[in-house]
Specification:
By secondary structure, the protein is α/β, with parallel strands linked by helices. Helices cover 44% and strands 15% of the residues.
């Protein structure tokens, strides 16, 4: 919930995701705290912080020799005692008034948080829909602190209505000189809501699109949805049954399809709304749906052409049959569950769990003898479809049985030939294999080789048919147990053992897949795959990361023909017709009697030509095509193919296909094959496969686990109770609902906090390393909302420093008047520009967000904005103007740099900035993306200013460590000429950045002796700072601390030396990184030298 706190972030506050090494100086040590307490006369009390050096006087260590105190020390103690006495008097006086004031004080304390965190009223947008947003003052209660709802409101509608998402062409309709960048969105299934996988893909794609658009290219991100044949039909059928108690057959095909279209329109709007909320800059005027008129025409054109060429053919083969969905599935839609042994599994349609992971041994009688032959099976019910037994030709145990028949014990008159085949492993099991040609892929080939009968024993619903004899009408897995009992009764049962195995499951219904013989449409894949492999190997298509490319080759080189038919009503009906010739039975498995056509008339013409003089009627195939068939045409059908449209001629091939690696074979490979075949060109130049998003425990996201996260819930926030309620909206079993609630209570105990779209996007991009899967953690994402607040508050501060009539300079180029701090931030800005552009070009997404974060947080906010305050407040007029101009340039560039990641926040803030003269750019999304400028590259200024900051940081750190609040005397000792020159020139800046407690800073060369009475802070190998502490600290305690620091530093030195000496490191690590590591070693050695000097100095102090 947004709160009207108004406090936001202080510019230098340590908000946002933790960064190692950042933040405030080290906390005051317990020794110093004790000294402060004793100085106040309260060694056992709450402690009092007396001001000035008196508060830092340390007690002498218990083990030290008593020391005669100097006059100054005695005087200091006298003053200290006086102050302590005065404080005690004040405290006593305050205690008398306490009873009367306590109630009021408590009342105030109780009320303050309530007022501070008072909930905001719901935000109301007053901008008319589609118009440019009416900006409100930062004084508005909704805008005092970063409020995602207020920031994100109205911008998207204006972007869309202004046509900013559409590709820009030249006047003659060509791609702009800068080139083109085109992405077709992986179409989400029209079946439901988006999940975090969609959020990841959308974030990455929009970053690439917005970045390329800002570089001036003709850009198109084409949106759309997939009709998702199996999923959609299944969802609508379930809905029909729940609401009306009807099946699709009660409605009939035409009415059912109408119902699905109505349902599709409703859910389609939900998906598009969610994508809009995420800020995706897709061109909605070109939105596609796989069953649109043109895309359907593309499907028909492809099928007919490939059928005419013989690439698509008809065959009666084993298919993966789902009895729950009543359709065939491709191999890719089947999940193989690994079992280590006997396991009971839930199967749809069965009240009790079913036994798997076993192997049953039983015997068949031999015809005309008392002999039997022992076989084994993991699927006992399939023995009803056995038509033969195979043995190895060299197996002496069975040679005398080859050519004889086994008798089926349950099916009358069924004899099963015993055949010899090298396929059989005589050492495995009994060495005899039962053959079920119509229900097993391996047995299918054996059956063909030996001319065995192919007997199907199952109905489409998973019941036993008439071929199963006495078991007809029974459920397949009920028969699994019945067959074993009946074998026992006949004395043919031998044994049952545990057996490791894979069980094929339908990915959609979780039903056990049955191999069944069905006449289907198939596509020959070997030749198409060979061409698709070639274009990747010769570099026409690059697949990233490398692991995905290797998987692509592995699958393509071992590809099987693709089963295209699906026994559904929702989808593209196969454009092919069966010719039923008068007077002939007609075999529907026979390819020669099927005729494809773009229209029925075209199919009739083909049939008449093939069947001269014969009378026939045409019947269209009722089956539809696999959803992935139409999806495989997506990159070119969405651009207008098979028509020669302007988009197809100018924007194909597309640039990048970004999607999850898990659909590399389902979709990416098929798009490449079909693009090459149908258009003659690759469909895209690059494939980027992002990782899978898992939950915080590393588990795959699943509705039954309760760990599926809706991006809209992350954007808006949602209480835990509402998360629980959403579980009840699906089809989860009550047991699964409880399990899901348990996870939600653990992961989202306080619900999901409102993060906003920009934080969601930035976080998802930052997760993307190109490596392993992503473990999603809402706490990390909420941390990036705090980063958004940092950006918001920083911009508010800068805008507050700009006068009403402030007019930026024409460009951000150097004027020659810049201070060292300005040169430093411009150099850092330039480095960030270079890094982000290079990393986005290389698809190093995490590196790009890291560069943006570091520039915004560590450099612009924490350093330059903070350090420029002195220049703006106390500098001369020209210094002030220069500092503000640089502040404007640094902020303007920062907003543009991060816009592709955070579109809403950057538009909201950028629109409030004054424009440079002549700049009429209407939106930040159309502004030119920053590019590297060699003029701003200034390593010398970087080194110099970091020396200044290092010195000031060291001084602050020492003062904090030794609890010195004022009268601090400091020395900066430099060890080379450059550092000496910088320190002398910037001594005022060093003093300013070190705080008000520093009274003097002297810069001395390295040739001078180490300053006496001081402790050291090594800044780098070029400089160190020294704080005078003689007479103000416990020497023995400090020696002990310095010794520990030396030991720690020496350990680090040894580790660094070992790293640098490693031959593997020297060969593999980039030269620039090796140089940085060598500098780190030099800094560590300098640090150790400094600590050793500190020890010696304290030892010398003891002798003074």
């Amino acid at each position: 919930m947004a709160t009207n706190s108004g406090r936001g972030n202080q510019i230098g506050a340590a908000e946002g995701p933790s960064k190692t090494g950042e933040g405030a100086p080290p906390p005051v040590s317990s020794d110093v705290k004790g000294a402060v307490k004793e100085a106040a006369g309260q060694a056992d009390g709450a402690g009092v912080h007396a001001p000035g050096p008196d508060a830092a006087v340390a007690p002498t260590a218990a083990t030290a020799e008593p020391k005669v105190k100097t006059e100054k020390e005695l005087e200091r103690e006298r003053k200290k005692a006086e102050k302590a006495a005065k404080f005690e008097q004040k405290k006593a006086k305050a205690a008398q008034a306490a009873p009367a004031a306590t109630g009021k004080l408590k009342e105030k304390k109780a009320k303050a948080p309530k007022a501070e965190e008072e909930a905001l009223a719901p935000y109301v947008e007053d901008t008319p829909l589609g118009e440019k947003k009416r900006l409100k003052s930062f004084d508005d209660p909704q805008l005092k602190a970063y409020n995602p709802v207020a920031v994100e409101s109205a911008w998207y509608e204006w972007w869309e209505s202004s046509g900013f998402f559409r590709p820009e062409f030249t006047q003659d309709g060509k791609v702009k000189d800068e080139g083109s960048f085109v992405i077709v969105i992986p179409p989400p299934n029209v079946t439901g809501a988006l999940h975090m996988g969609h959020a990841l893909g959308n974030s990455l794609q929009d970053v690439m699109i917005r970045w390329n658009r800002m570089h001036g290219k003709t850009t198109l991100w084409l949106p759309g949805c997939d009709h998702a044949g199996i999923s959609t039909q299944s969802v609508v059928e379930n809905m029909l049954w729940r609401r009306q108690g009807k099946t699709r057959h009660d409605l009939g095909r035409e009415k059912f399809v109408e119902t699905v279209w109505e349902w599709k329109d409703e859910y389609h709007k939900r998906i598009n709304n969610a994508q809009r909320k995420m800020g995706v800059s897709t061109d909605w005027s070109r939105e596609a749906f796989t069953m649109d008129k043109n895309l359907s025409a593309a499907v028909t054109e492809t099928f007919v052409k490939l059928h005419e060429e013989g690439i698509i053919y008809r065959a009666n083969r084993l298919v993966n049959w789902c009895t729950q969905l009543n359709t065939a599935l491709s191999n890719l839609e089947v999940v193989n569950k690994e079992l280590t042994g006997r396991t009971l599994l839930d199967v749809p349609g069965y009240e009790k769990k079913v036994e798997f992971g076993i192997i049953v041994h039983f015997k068949y009688p031999i015809e005309g003898s008392e002999e039997t032959i022992e076989v084994a099976t993991t699927r006992p019910e399939t023995m009803l479809g056995d038509t033969g037994i195979a043995v190895h030709p060299q197996d002496e145990r069975y040679k005398h049985l080859v050519g004889k028949n086994a008798i089926h014990p349950f099916i009358k008159d069924r004899l099963m030939p015993i055949v010899a085949d090298d396929y059989v492993d005589k050492e495995f099991g009994t060495g005899a294999v039962k053959i079920t040609p119509a229900h097993d892929p391996n047995d299918f080939a054996l059956g063909q080789r030996h001319g065995l009968k192919f007997i199907n024993i199952l109905t489409d619903n998973g019941l036993m048919n008439g071929n199963a004899g006495p078991y007809e009408g029974q459920k397949r897995f009920d028969v699994r147990y019945a067959v074993q009992n009946d074998l026992k009764e006949r004395g043919l049962y031998v044994d049952k053992k545990d057996n490791p195995m894979k069980v094929p499951l339908c990915e959609k219904s979780k039903d056990i897949i049955e191999p069944i013989m069905k006449p289907q449409w198939w596509m020959r894949m070997k030749d198409l795959a060979a061409e698709a492999i070639k274009v990747v190997k010769d570099g026409q298509i690059k697949i990233k990361p490398e692991t995905a490319e290797k998987s692509y080759y592995r699958w393509m080189e071992d590809i099987n023909d693709w089963c295209l038919s699906r026994q559904l009503w929702w989808g593209h009906q196969c454009p092919v017709y069966f010719a039923q010739v008068e007077g002939e039975a007609g075999d529907r498995a026979e390819d020669s009697l099927w005729f494809s056509g773009r229209t029925e008339e075209e199919a009739r013409e083909k049939a008449e030509k093939a069947l001269p003089g014969k009378k026939f009627t045409l019947e269209r195939d009722e089956d539809v095509l696999d959803t992935w068939f139409s999806s495989g045409l997506w990159p070119f059908s969405t651009l207008g193919w098979p028509n020669k449209t302007h988009d197809l001629q100018n924007l194909y091939p597309t640039s990048v296909l970004e999607t999850g690696w898990d659909i590399l074979f389902f979709w990416i490979a098929r798009m490449i094959m079909l693009g090459l075949k149908m258009v003659g060109q690759v469909p895209f130049r690059e494939v980027y496969c992002h990782s899978l998003v898992r939950d915080s425990d590393g588990r795959k996201m699943s509705k039954s686990l309760g760990n599926v996260v809706d991006p809209l819930d992350v954007i808006k926030g949602i209480p835990l109770e509402q998360l629980h309620e959403k579980l009840l909206q699906g089809n989860l079993h009550p047991n699964e609902v409880e399990k899901a609630k348990k996870y939600q209570r653990t992961a989202f105990g306080d619900g999901i906090p409102e993060c906003g779209a920009d934080a969601l996007r930035f976080c998802m991009v930052n997760y993307t390393t190109g490596g392993g899967d992503i473990n999603f953690d809402i706490k990390v994402m909420h941390g990036y909302r705090k980063f958004c607040n940092k950006i918001y508050q920083a911009t508010k501060y800068v805008l507050g420093k700009l006068d009403q009539d402030f007019l930026p300079k024409h460009t951000g180029r150097l004027t020659g008047k810049e201070s060292l701090a300005e040169k430093w931030i411009l150099h850092k800005m330039n480095n960030a520009v270079k890094d982000i552009n290079e990393n986005l070009a290389d698809r190093e997404f995490m590196k790009s967000t890291t560069a943006a974060y570091q520039y915004w947080y560590n450099q612009l906010c924490d350093v330059y904005i903070e350090n420029s305050k002195a220049l703006i407040q106390d500098g001369a007029e020209d210094e002030k103007r220069s500092a503000i101009d640089t502040l404007y340039t640094a902020l303007d560039t920062a907003l543009k740099l991060i816009h592709p990641f955070m579109p809403f926040l950057t538009e909201e803030l950028w629109q409030r900035l004054p424009r440079r003269p002549g700049d009429q750019t209407p939106s930040i999304m159309l502004a030119r993306y920053p590019v590297y400028d060699p003029e701003l590259d200034n390593p010398a200024a970087e080194a110099a200013y970091e020396l200044v900051m290092g010195c000031s940081k060291g001084i602050r750190s020492l003062m904090a460590e030794y609890a010195l609040k004022d009268e601090a005397k400091v020395f900066v000792q430099t060890y080379d000429a450059t550092a000496q020159k910088t320190a002398i020139e910037q001594v005022v800046s060093i003093k300013s950045l070190s705080g008000k407690g520093v009274t003097s800073i002297d810069v001395i060369p390295g040739s001078d002796p180490r300053p006496a009475g001081c402790v050291a802070f090594p800044v780098s190998s070029s400089a160190a700072v020294f704080l005078h502490v003689k007479g103000r600290v416990d020497i023995d305690s400090e020696i002990s601390k310095a010794v520990k620091k030396v030991e720690k530093t020496r350990t680090a030195i040894a580790k660094q030396q070992k790293l640098l000496a490693d031959p593997g490191y020297q060969q593999k690590v980039a030269a620039s990184l090796q140089e940085a590591d060598r500098k780190r070693l030099a800094d560590l050695e300098s640090e150790a030298k400094g600590f050793e000097g500190t020890i010696k100095q304290f030892e010398d102090l003891k002798l003074e």
